[in-house]
Specification:
By secondary structure, this protein is an alpha/beta fold. The strands form two sheets. The protein has a six-stranded mixed beta sheet, sandwiched between helices. It has nine helices and nine strands. The chain is globular, with a radius of gyration of 20 Å. The protein is 35% helix and 24% strand.
């Protein structure tokens, strides 16, 4: 008997969805930083065992859209409610359970099993966690509650065991050696964008998109040409920095992470271009892979 199914991870920004995704898959495939709204796409990670295949999807945090990019991000999150065999709704010990009631109401109406994951329990007392469990059980009475700490790697095995028990009998949907649906270029752009999130302040990371224009791979080396798009000339200057120092540091840090990710020597060249108001441009969003058809 073999089980397979789609398990979608949803929730508000900055509750640890990407950290949980990486922990469950065992690969670092989703950006996980201290800043909110880091995940922009729906990212698939696949867990394979001899008798099961769990197809996990990390989704952007649920936000009220302020521009078209965020509208696309919300579409990724809402689509995850439509094609799941099991839903992981992730919250934490900080946010109020009633936050984003509109999205929560859609979760309440779902017929598939819902696992309510309360993350970051290492930051709260047992009494606080117990109170949160009761509040969430009142909001989602059919959901099973799993208190965890993704950062401390606590509770993930219990989630995986329960998911496996809930999956339908099915042959695998993907090859058993496959662990994501995204191409290599996608992870290059995400790793570069992660470094921008870490090393630049204020609105800069959220005004940035990274596109990989060249990816040439051999057995031992990968040559990459990446374009960093910003919305204004002033942002371009900040990314580059005085005498190019900031962009050089960005390239060095990205290369180190890429070499760990691919296990090969990396030569990466980064350039910065201005693409005015790309976050509100349907054509550009489609080119960058955001708009769902």
């Amino acid at each position: 008997m073999h089980k397979s199914g789609f398990v979608n991870i949803v929730g508000n920004p900055n509750v640890g969805k990407s950290t949980l995704m990486n922990l469950l898959v065992g690969e670092r495939i989703s950006i996980a930083t201290f800043k909110a709204q880091t995940t922009r796409h729906r990212i698939m990670g696949i867990v394979n065992t001899d008798d099961a295949q769990i197809v996990l999807s990390d989704t952007p945090g649920v936000v009220k859209p302020a521009y078209k990019l965020q509208e696309s991000m919300l579409q990724f999150s809402e689509s995850a409610l439509q094609d799941a065999d099991v839903l992981l709704y992730v919250t934490d010990v900080v946010e109020e359970p009633e936050k984003n009631a509109t999205f929560l109401a859609k979760v309440q109406q779902m017929d598939v099993p819902v696992l309510l994951v309360i993350n970051k329990i290492d930051l709260a007392t047992q009494d606080i966690v117990s109170t949160l469990i009761k509040r969430w059980q009142a909001l989602l009475p059919r959901a099973e509650v799993f208190p965890i700490s993704a950062k401390a790697k606590f509770g993930n095995q219990a989630i995986l065991s329960r998911i496996k028990a809930l999956l339908p009998e099915s042959p695998p949907y993907f090859g058993k050696d496959q662990w994501t649906d995204k191409p290599a270029r996608f992870f290059v752009s995400e790793i570069v964008r992660e470094k921008i999130l870490l090393y630049y302040d204020k609105e800069i990371p959220y005004a940035v998109q990274v596109a990989v224009e060249e990816f040439k791979e051999t057995d031992t080396r990968i040559d990459i040409r990446a374009i960093i798009y910003v919305e204004r000339e002033s942002q371009k200057g900040i990314i580059i920095g005085h005498k190019g120092i900031a962009l050089k540091r960005l390239g060095i840090e990205a290369r180190r992470s890429l070499e760990r990710f691919f296990g090969k020597k990396i030569n990466i060249q980064t350039y910065v271009k201005v693409d005015k108001d790309w976050r509100n441009n349907d054509r550009e969003l489609r080119n960058f892979g955001y708009n769902q058809e």
